[in-house]
Structures
1.
Amino acid sequence: MIPNLAKLMFPAKDIVGVDIGSYSIKIVCFVQEKKQLKLKDWGCIPLAFKADTAPEEKKAIIAQEIKNYLKKKGIQARYAAASVSGNAVIVRYVKLPKLSPKELALTINVEAEPFIPFDIKDVSLTYHILGDITEDGQPKMETVLVAAKNEAVNDKIEIISGAGLDPLIIDVDSFALETLYEKLFPGPDGSAALLLNIGYKVTNLSIVAQGVTRVVRDIFIAGATFDKAIAKILKVDAASAEAAKKKKGLLVSDEDKEAAIGDFDKEAISVSKAAAGVLKDLYTEVSRSIDFYLSQGAEHSISKIYLSGGMSNLGNIAKFMAAEFRVPVEVANPFAFLGEQARNVPADVLPTLAVASGLALRRLKDWEE
Ligand SMILES: Nc1ncnc2c1ncn2[C@@H]1O[C@H](COP(=O)(O)OP(=O)(O)OP(=O)(O)O)[C@@H](O)[C@H]1O
Ligand SMILES: [Mg+2]
């Protein structure tokens, strides 16, 4: 049989976003057909390693899982975008002296060093100039510095390559979320949004105002913290605590609370109490970032929370946070811009695919450029 030459020479621009989390791997693949974006497929692969699995072995297992998924779904993609977050990356918004692009390229390591808490030799450093300003009569540039630990970047490259894909982009979780947010809510709208992606080990926070990101930070309060608090109060192991968390959620309204008391549902009351305690701690950390943002002469206060990650499925979490922060909370639907196409994706999967979707969109953006 003669191979389809057109197909060989012009491979479909399949775009695979691969979000390798500590709880699950999330995969989103879009294709562009006649300028129309189509959802080719999505996947959410749970990860459960034995306690003694070595890091190298974990990487091989993850790569194999991705490979199996692509094969099963018949996705013949070449390129992928993956991301790093947590301890592996630091993002700083800083003011640097005004320099020409050439001068900056030569001196960036020296300029950035005071802001980066890692050894500059161990990181890949990138930067982006947001604009010129004058401070104390001196011309300066507002700059975003991104330092990602080489080791973490290399791990992701190794996994993606091991899965048979070309790791074209290694992004940052928070930036992927911003790409998605921009796609869903394009253009400046005179307000600021807080993006919170609550996963298993880490919560990615960004504040986006007028289409520009102002604060990016990862907070180490997430799903595992909830499980630990619930395990303590129920005196059970983490796995049972997690199951109770999924089953019971938070009690927010007076009716819910009264019903739980009336039913002698001690488990529901305890789970809610433990989860609310963790959310208060998260609130304290998030408030710090909001205060920091406001102290930078922000023109817009936070008017909305855009919630994603597996933990957005915790029963009543949006209601709880809306009451706490006193702003509306929207749970992410990363396929909202696709209309009817994504109607078969289960509601609890949608918010977990936010980072993967942003990564896949990032690829698309780059094709267009
Ligand atoms: N229905 C549910 N109710 C409550 N929590 C849930 C539910 N479904 C998933 N979760 C929680 O979501 C968390 C996993 O979220 P997610 O898949 O976004 O993490 P991850 O991206 O793999 O982790 P990380 O980015 O932190 O490494 C787990 O703590 C899990 O218990
Ligand atoms: Mg995650």
2.
Amino acid sequence: MKIAISGKGGVGKTTLAACLARYYAKKGYKVVAVDADPDSNLASALGLEPDKVLEITPLVEMSRLIEERTGAKSGEYGLYFKLNPKVDDIPQKFGIDVDGVKLLVAGTVKAGGSGCYCPENVFLKRLFRHLIVNSDEVVILDMEAGIEHLGRGTCESMDCLIIVVEPGLRSVQTAHTVKKMAKDLGIKSLFVVINKLKSHEEKVLLESNLKDLRLIGVLPYSEGVRDSDLKSLSPCNVDKRFSSAIEEIATKIEEEIEGSKGG
Ligand SMILES: Nc1ncnc2c1ncn2[C@@H]1O[C@H](COP(=O)(O)OP(=O)(O)OP(=O)(O)O)[C@@H](O)[C@H]1O
Ligand SMILES: [Mg+2]
């Protein structure tokens, strides 16, 4: 399963990505969690200690690696380089183990001119496309807020895109925009998760604005989750109600993806 997570800023993408990753890992899947947000913080949401988080070097900043695999130095736009660099050993060699999850921090590609065709970008795209897929593997991609990056080809190879919304219609507006773009990118399945829900009334209001977007689950607002961020702890096991909602969503995603692959 290859799952990408998108949505407006601050809605809870990283929280959902981390908790799904840890849940699937606990269930016995081999999980690769990819932090594709330049402002990366999936590591701490997964529960990596703050001092170790500081030691992480994002993949695109490993210039020797990029050079070795693509045959071109970072910043060399327009020159010849390999369009299919070897990436299959990357999770194993460069993944950081956090509680049974392999974390890859992608980093930012500073687009210069023809940003799309710099060696770093080719390397990342190839990586996203290649990652897995055996039936016991799960890839979870925590994406940057907003929509600009959707055109850059990060998520075409995903089985499903989950858009997170919160009680607030601006996040729903973003979801509709993402949906329009996802269609053009050929993403097969698209689902919405409502996060930070406080009341039934909020749910009714959000649902009526989701229109043709498919709701796959709801996560409650949780003081425990909020508090975990204050303390640099993982939000994944701090609140039973929240964790069981994660479990329900994870199960639904499995069913949906299996269903779409089976038929
Ligand atoms: N269900 C929840 N209940 C309470 N607080 C939550 C909940 N989900 C997320 N939060 C809090 O909201 C904040 C934003 O969450 P998170 O970082 O997961 O969002 P994001 O969409 O990844 O943000 P960004 O767009 O900056 O990447 C965090 O402080 C997090 O702890
Ligand atoms: Mg985030």
3.
Amino acid sequence: MQKTLTLFQEIATMLLLEEQNNPMAPFVASEDLFETLDISLQENPLLEEDFVCTLKDLIAKTPKTATHAFFNQLFGGRNEKAVLGDLLSVLLNNSMYTYKAAGVQIGVEKAIIEKVNSLLGWNKNSGGTIAAGGSMTNFMAMLMARDFKNSAIRQKGITQKMTVYTSVESHYSIPKNASFSGIGREQVRYIPVNEKGEMNASKLLEVIENDLENGFLPTMVNATAGTTVLGAFDIILPLIEICKKYAIWLHVDGAYCGSVLFSKKYRHLIEGVAAVDSFSFNAHKMIGTPLTCSLLQVKEKKYLYQSFANEAEYLYQTDEDDFNPGKTSLQCGRRNDALKFWTLWKSVGTKGLETIVDKQFELADIARNYVESHPDYTCYSYENSISVCFNYKGISARDLCRELYEHSQLLVGYGTFNNQEFIRLVTVNSQNEKEDILNFFKVIENFVAENQALFALPAKTN
Ligand SMILES: Cc1ncc(COP(=O)(O)O)c(C=O)c1O
């Protein structure tokens, strides 16, 4: 193992150097992949020397997500302490279902869940779990909502038309999860949003009441804290009243931006969260841990047990349920995603997490100010969002993103809102500085200036 760790260090050092010199990996077209790299598997073992060489080549050509050229998705950067925790999780290789198998690591997960619950304003009846991504924590929330509405479903299956409400701007995991849970995609009601992308609460009420009149069983409202494209926050307060009135489970999908919980300045964006039934957030997005680290917090942990607990004598052989979190998880074997969050949190404190979150809004303000003050840009974003959406010189957003990618300039994506397509810059990497954001725009401007032939630039009017 020591020899392998030395090799790891050698490759990691090469990667870090490579990231500095070439923040973008060379472009490898998917159709050329298996010709460009030695990936296919062969019958006989490789010589160690060839193995190392092949592995280094693979690493060097992999998209780099920790550099200041990666703005493509809702994660990025690299936090050293969190990486340390994750590397140790791999070495330890515990499974987080029982105290017997994971021991003190169960305490690490519990400490995180309990601390987050206290920040949410919840008491000791609350609980939570960590699952493999925000889609899965949303799924778990939907299953709890379903069983909360009708606990007999666990035995008998669904017999009524249950309905789920979510904004048109919410994540695609909601309809997928409706299909997995037996609720069905057709029973997802997409509620319109205002010009900022926030759910229209009075429309929600109207749709729920209409469903009730037509014999449906309203089951779950999903509010989004940070919509995937615009980074908008559904206003929670009016949803609480509606859900209370009709006994509907209220979940907040904070996968993208629920981490505003850690910020005194921005937690008003989730005002009312103490009154919801469940709340999820991805520490691998705003907090910057390695993928994946997705937390599901539940105000009444009895609902986690109701939906997920199952007896298994071959597994649960020691300790109380509280120390055997397999009883509240979707999976059986489960990776230790807690340690990386803990090593980060322990080292920087809750105040450090706040700094990480606030920095992203600061970077977004810098980007938005830049876009708003330069006439070649059109801005589609509002304040209090870390997604800065814009177009440059009227160039098609999808063409520009593709060319930047294929020419190894930048990784950035595009999105749409109200039939308008635009580039979405996400300032989720808190290790970036003002210069990195300004450099992002410079790269685009220089690239367009040098490659005018690639773009059908709209003619100048004067
Ligand atoms: C609002 C929202 N919810 C859920 C998810 C899904 O999270 P994951 O990619 O961890 O499954 C995302 C992912 O971007 C998201 O933006």
